[in-house]
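Schema walk-through. Below, the input block comes first and the output block second. Nothing else is stored per chain. Lengths vary across the set, and this one has 97 residues.
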Amino acid sequence: MYEAEVNADIRTWRDVLSSFDKAVEECSDVDMLVKCLLEDDLWYIPFDSGMKLMEKAKSLGGCSLDFLADYYSFKAAFLDPGKEYDNAVAKLDKLFQ
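--- output ---
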């Protein structure tokens, strides 16, 4: 019985994340996307969904200091060392100078 409940919970969670990802893909309101990101200050949005959200907001012109600080902080925190990571750290340093 317990396993069936867990499987139902997992399916529900996957459905929620899928709906969230679809809403991000369909949204063209940069202010709404940035607000969604900034209100998730404890980073409850899973990594892949958070990256999709940030990349979409950035591609639509998200450029407020708060957004860019979160964008580059997230990348610096989660990317493996390499060119993209180095770029994120450099942009983050530049933002705070």
